Write the structure tokens for this entry.
Amino acid sequence: MRLLVDGVFFQLSNSGIARVWRSLLPRLAAFPDIEITVLDRGRSPRFAGIEYIDFPSYTFTSTASDSLLIDVFAKDCDADVFLTTYYTTPTQIPSVLIVYDMIPELFGFDMKLRAWQEKDLAISFAQYCLCISENTRKDLLRIYPKFDPERVTTAYCGLDSKAFRPREEKEVSAFRKEYEVAEDYCILVGSREQHTGYKNAGLLFDALKKQGQFFDVFDQSSRSELQILCVGGEPVVQKHFTEGLPDNITVKRVDLTDDELACAYTGARALVYPSLYEGFGLPVVEAMSCGCPVITTPHGSLKEVAGDAAVLISGKDANELANALKLAWNPAKRDELRERGLERAGRFTWEPMAEELRKLAFKAADERASPEIINFMKEWNRLRRIQADIDVSL
């Protein structure tokens, strides 16, 4: 079995989806009955046992021509099944698609944008879809009711337990010193500014602006300074978040390696993850694996992932979040959350997802010669060729 993998997402971003594929690719390559060729559009990580081919950058414009070019490379390397790290498609070999979330469809994104049109096409073309949570699977089947439920499976994301583990105090101290991080801090991870607001980062800033409700959290003998450590996301923390914060609450934004992030989690009072929807919520598991208390919501897949190992809030009330922060400062509650989180995080490994993806790839390959699939791909190729002839860059 030869898999052709489009490394398009590595070109586009180094965010959570890239982490998924950095974890999956070496595990897929380790299967003795699988060979992998990656179309490298730029920045694809290198793993032993995988062949890499330079491929044109993705532009979200001439997407039909891109599909036809994928076909050429698929034929040249005699690929059996196509996998994409994002929402690209071939036209003449079966596709197994990982679906991460249904955020654009559910949160009012402009579905006329080419990126989301291509996602729709990728789902429509795929022989099988693997969703990263049951909630994502449910949403996919609700939005695509004609998709055969037997062809949509679920496998959870895993965890790099070598990187994301509780760190020793000296490692945490060294991290704090290098990045000038305060002794008391809580963490926000990822984007803070979304045009639909589903990431909901502003809720933390609103809660901390309620000075009178929050500062009795601190033990009177300890420091009364708190830092919000923003990891990744936009390069600058927007002023509307920081304006109005009390003087003894500071904000710092950093980019961190996995090892540094593990140190940050270990030393933090809490990960605050008030998102109103996630396809999975990998930072929740990573934080728990480092012994960091987690405050999150039950929305999307987050309750499914966090279970009883996090403080759950509605995500709609700053007072409620302020009270959750008080809980995270309580020593007994912190110990309880740490113990539950470490146990919960241990359930998430990458091997089941890699095995499920392998299984679906073999199913798709076995169906390739069926008259139904042959006719489907012939018609799909015809339509994409028409689109390629009239496509223009806007």
